[in-house]
Design brief:
The chain has 14 helices and two strands; from the N terminus they run H-H-H-H-E-E-H-H-H-H-H-H-H-H-H-H. The chain is an all-alpha fold and 394 residues long. The longest helix has 29 residues, at 361-389.
């Protein structure tokens, strides 16, 4: 009988290979993150394309990058679902759900659905532009279908990674935490893009803007912070959003471009980036900083402190920062507030560097109170969803 003593090179090699396998991040989680990053880059680039050039064709690089993310998510999910259904062992089938007779991780099915929804939105969006105009608002039926598909991919990636995270230990768990939080950063970015029509610099002295920002914000941050368990989870998520937005703000203007549609009111010579990112990382950092002091408090106290505190700190830093962005001191490559789309008329408030007239007295405070309640509700939902995510293992 052949035996190998414990501690011999052969046994050490087997042990090392086992540790390496155990610490490897599942490739479908990586595919979900890469798809999310590709989609975020494509959506940001596409909005810049519309503001710089106009919608000249469906086959722009930005559109293709968005659809690459959809195809990647769908194609990466399919073999996992088919392998689990037709060739899965007892362990993989136990860690799966049944959808229409097919088996696979819940996140894989949502990833696949998100990719399919995005691909379906493409011809719908093309028809919509041909029927109702080459340039339309961000919020339109095909764009909403596209957004649902994007969120399907991003949250599918979160569910998939959370299911692995809840079963992982040691090095593997740490890597999955960062993967989950990076994906959360792109979810936050996508949410902020949907709110762009309410968060322009010229709007940031109005209560309506902060009401829009508060919707769902803490749902994202708190749910992912709870499932990851990372000490600085909220800071990492908002930091990912901030870093990506700043890179795009600084990189896109390096590329020359000019409008192909009219009327042209601005002298465009380069790609127009989106505005400077919101200072969400500041209240996120403060919340992470104080969390050890309130983590054992009742959930209602956490909701009250985090919901009101996060919004209050955001207003305290964003309000004067918006004033700065409207000033001549901010008109440089770093803050880049003077990048206007070609269709921005000279009488637009942001072009004139003036704020929208804030709501009158009682209405202003009433809307701010609603924003505070909405922020607390978002925190409450985040706590509930995060606690559920911590139980996801399939």
């Amino acid at each position: 009988m052949n035996t190998t003593a414990i501690g011999t090179p052969a046994s050490i090699g087997v042990s090392a290979r086992a540790v390496a396998r155990g610490s490897a991040v599942p490739w479908l989680s990586w595919a979900g993150l890469i798809a999310s990053a590709a989609i975020a880059s494509g959506v940001y680039w596409d909005i810049s394309w519309h503001e710089t050039i106009g919608r000249d064709s469906f086959w722009t690089p930005a559109h293709l990058l968005i659809q690459f993310g959809a195809v990647l998510a769908a194609l990466a999910s399919a073999p996992v679902i088919f392998r689990t259904t037709f060739a899965g062992d007892a362990a993989s089938r136990q860690a799966s759900v049944n959808v229409l007779g097919f088996r696979g991780p819940l996140g894989a099915f949502i990833l696949a659905w998100g990719g399919a929804a995005m691909l379906t939105s493409a011809p719908f969006d093309n028809w919509w532009h041909n029927a109702y105009g080459l340039d339309v608002k961000i919020v339109s039926p095909p764009h909403m279908l596209l957004a649902l598909g994007i969120f399907g991919i991003q949250w599918g990636a979160v569910l998939l990674t959370a299911s692995y995270l809840n079963r992982a230990q040691g090095v593997e768990r740490k890597r999955l935490e960062y993967l989950l939080l990076a994906t959360g950063g792109f979810i936050l970015l996508q949410t902020q893009i949907l709110k762009l029509e309410y968060t322009g610099n010229w709007r940031l002295h109005s209560a309506t803007s902060y009401l829009a920002i508060s919707i769902g914000l803490l749902l994202i941050l708190e749910s992912l912070a709870r499932v990851s368990g990372h000490r600085w989870a909220r800071t990492i998520i908002t930091g990912t959003y901030t870093a990506f937005s700043l890179l795009m703000l600084w990189i896109l203007p390096l590329f020359p471009a000019s409008p192909k549609l009219g009327p042209v009111y601005q002298n465009i010579t380069h790609m127009v980036p989106l505005p400077f990112p919101m200072l969400l990382v500041v209240p996120a950092f403060v919340l992470d900083l104080i969390w050890p002091r309130i983590k054992d408090a009742s959930k209602w106290l956490q909701i009250l402190i985090a919901g009101t505190g996060f919004l209050g700190i955001l207003i305290a830093v964003q309000w004067p920062f918006a004033t700065f962005l409207m000033s001549p001191a901010a008109r440089n490559w770093f803050f880049a507030p003077n990048n206007y789309p070609y269709f921005a008329r000279p009488d637009f408030m942001d072009v004139r560097h003036v704020f929208m007239q804030p709501e009158s007295g009682a209405t202003f405070f009433w809307l701010m109170a609603i924003a505070c309640v909405v922020s607390m509700v978002s925190m409450w939902l985040g706590i509930g969803f995060g606690d559920w995510l911590k139980r996801v293992k399939r």
